[in-house]
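Ticket opened by: R.M.
Priority: normal
Category: complex prediction / small molecule

The reporter submitted a protein together with zinc ion and asked that the result be attached to this ticket for the collaborator who will pick it up next week. Submitted input follows.
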Amino acid sequence: MIVFDGHVHTPFCPHGTKDPLEAYCENAIHHGLTAISFMEHAPLPHNFHDPVPHQDSALSWNDLELYLLEVEKVKRAFQGSLTIYTGLEVDYIEGYEKETTKMLDTYGPSLDDSILSVHFLNFAGQYICLDYSPQSFQKLVERVGSIENVHDLYFQTVEKSILTPLGAYKPKRIGHITLSTKFQKRFPTTYLFDSKLDTIFKQMYEQSLALDINGAGVLKPLCGETYPNPRFITRAHQYQIPLIYGSDAHQVKAMMSGIEQLPTTIDFVTHLDR
Ligand SMILES: [Zn+2]
Ligand SMILES: [Zn+2]
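Result attached by the on-call engineer:
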């Protein structure tokens, strides 16, 4: 049974909905959750150009303080009925490690929780958002030569995110680790996920990192699976990696997505030790 949703977005997300924080909290209680983490996209480095058409991948720097304040406010309002953690979903962007570390050093002390995710891939100094659209994925395929090479570039970047030091406040959880499968029904592949994920899970175990078990892929018509899929959830569990369910909801009605796919014999993390 899922009692902790560790990955919830907010009205502060520029590509999300305006559903208020309180509505997420009430819905969490309605579904029997005892804890949630608000996990807004951390602002991107000032010197990084957001490659998506409307530059709306993340919180704007101007909204960051207000976001943190508003989460603290609901935290108090729901005290006793729901545990609320303040979090940021931090992008690992190859080449911007210094800027990311600086952001984490500054805002990490205000956070209860955080996730490290890869959305942007660096190919020959050009960044493309992997999961923006099937068109952006197609563009990547053309750049790197094949669908398999896209997966490979993605997982190489994930490996870097696991192994690269980002200071004392580096997130302790890796986000939607198979995000490169978001459009898998349109881009079928022979990529060998098993051996790659075995390597990655081993690295995560050694680095004491937890895994975001992300339900959002289930709602994506070209994916239809959790990130990672149930078979790899079981595999990660064999590596003794802590598993934290995350709806990755950008609207209230997307909470609890994908829970029907989760292996029922596996225990998911129920709260954070702090
Ligand atoms: Zn988002
Ligand atoms: Zn994400």
